[in-house]
Amino acid sequence: MQLSFLGRYRCPTTSIALPLFMNAVPAGFPSPAQDYIERTLDLNDLCIQHPSATYFVRAEGDSMQGVGIFSRDVLVVDRSLKAAHGDIVIACVDGEFTVKELRTRPTLQLLAHNPAYAPIQFGPDNTLELFGVVTTVIHSVRQRG
Amino acid sequence: MFALVDCNNFYASCERLFRPDLAGRPIVVLSNNDGCIVARSAEAKRLGIKMAVPLYQVQEQIDRENIAIFSSNYALYGDISARVMTVLEQQAPAIEVYSIDEAFLDLSGLDSHFSLTEYGQQLKQLVYQHTGIHVSVGIAPTKTLAKLANHAAKQYPATQGVVDLTDPARQRRLLALMPLLEVWGVGRRLSRRLEQQGIRSAQALADCDVAWIRNHYSITLANTVRELNGQPCMSLEECPPPRQQILCSRSFARRISALPDMRSAIAQYGSRAAEKLRQQSALARVVTVFIRTNPHATEETFYSQSASRMLATPSADSRQLNTIAQTLLQTLWKPNLRYMKAGIMLSDLYSPGHFQPSLFEPAESPAAARLMQAVDQINQGGRGRGRVRFAGEMLSTGWQMQRNRLSPAYTTHWDQLPIVKA
């Protein structure tokens, strides 16, 4: 094999560590908590049931303040859920995504949660296209920047 | 029994997923550097836009027909692809991810319990419900027939996107309809040769004598003939073998003539290649750098050269690999040329601990590995690629890929989430 000199490689430390002991030597009293340690909590477990069907979107506007969705909030959307009466859903209306409450009775409509906005009605002729069901709202309460 | 599940117009469908305003509008997706058309929505196909045509040739039609254009957004396509594959994994005993938008499913044992057509329809429905992507499903006793079935599912709307070729009589009927070029593994050159010998359709190929094909063509084509007749020769490859080399190369947005530009490009490709290397937990022993000018520019000198160097010990340290790449570039560089493309290849790959350590060089320090891990974590952490870089990558940036029509990283960047009106 030919070796060619590539230039000096500067290693952050030039010392070579030699292991003196193969095992740590326990000294002192073992921690009584050792047998009780569990994995720390992961927010994903709480907010996401179907990872491959979950998308995040950002809300803009004040029409859903009544259910606690404010402008700039991040919404967790699960596409795998079948939308039912009373669900908060992402719908496609006039070429835009919108977040509203789904009402299937007495008539099909999308309901805002702000008195300033009228419900969006769906007659027998127009179809309602849904993107997914909102399961969680992520609302930061700390002012940033 | 196999199913081939293939996403319909995958890149265009990804672009439409978060753009309800594009419903029904034709869409095309461009190649790297926005040069050619690499994907079309069903509407764009109907308008007669061909695959792989240069953009400038159809620009006029694109404006006239109000076709939406996008640069390739691989961050988006990769994420949606992973979602589709995850859904498929949950629906079959085993799956082989064949490409970014298709997968083979092993259905052995399922056929005695279900109607496979019904299973295909449920699969199609489920993938759409979960991901928003439409797929077509071809079901058959061999992979080659499953490919053909999938093609038929796409071509004939009456199939509702699912074709089950379990029945040998149906296999024969479909083979009679399919041109040679649609057979998996039969390319243009091979099909021309077959046609010269009077074999002009998929059915004619299926009727060939296997021994004759093996003697006059290849074992591979003989297996294809067997597969067309329903005898499985290819099995599911669940774990693709780890890649034996990692290549990162691209054409520049504009020609490069200055060394700092080239050094910056090589540094960026090197960092990207090293990151890919670490993603598959490998170490590389050989670094290759190549640069080339435009082979089609007749009035210019054509120059294309590469150089490699072997490390004493395999490494995954971006700093070490980049240092070597820059040294190699110095040996290749010729001034006064207009370079079109450059790249870096990492090869002779090892798993950690599976090589003979060098007697003369210190082993890679754990601190270096931790540093690289930290760099990767920051760059893959949902705030965008390239947040931490090596200074060499930033010497100049004008040469970078043109992606003027790039859609947002809807699913991989917190600042680019789809907006919903509240």
UniProtKB/TrEMBL annotation, chain A:
Residues 20-134 form the Peptidase S24/S26A/S26B/S26C domain. GO terms for biological process: DNA repair; regulation of DNA-templated transcription; SOS response. GO terms for molecular function: DNA binding; hydrolase activity. The keyword Hydrolase applies. It comes from the Bacteria. Keywords: Autocatalytic cleavage, DNA damage, DNA repair, Hydrolase, SOS response. InterPro entries: LexA-like (IPR039418), LexA/Signal_pep-like_sf (IPR036286), LexA_repressor (IPR050077), Peptidase_S24_LexA (IPR006197), Peptidase_S24_S26A/B/C (IPR015927). It holds the Pfam family Peptidase_S24. Belongs to the peptidase S24 family. This is Translesion error-prone DNA polymerase V autoproteolytic subunit.
TrEMBL record, chain B:
SUPFAM superfamilies: DNA/RNA polymerases, Lesion bypass DNA polymerase (Y-family), little finger domain. PANTHER family: DNA REPAIR POLYMERASE UMUC / TRANSFERASE FAMILY MEMBER, PROTEIN UMUC. Keywords: DNA damage, DNA repair, Nucleotidyltransferase, SOS mutagenesis, SOS response, Transferase. Residues 2-187 form the UmuC domain. GO terms for cellular component: cytosol. GO terms for biological process: DNA repair; error-prone translesion synthesis; SOS response. Belongs to the DNA polymerase type-Y family. The gene is umuC. Its EC number is 2.7.7.7. One of its GO terms (molecular function) is damaged DNA binding. This is Translesion error-prone DNA polymerase V subunit UmuC. InterPro entries: DNA/RNA_pol_sf, DNA_pol_Y-fam_lit_finger_sf, DNA_pol_Y-fam_little_finger, DNA_polymerase-Y, DUF4113, Rev_trsase/Diguanyl_cyclase, UmuC. It holds the Pfam family IMS_C. It comes from the Bacteria. It comes from Amphritea opalescens.
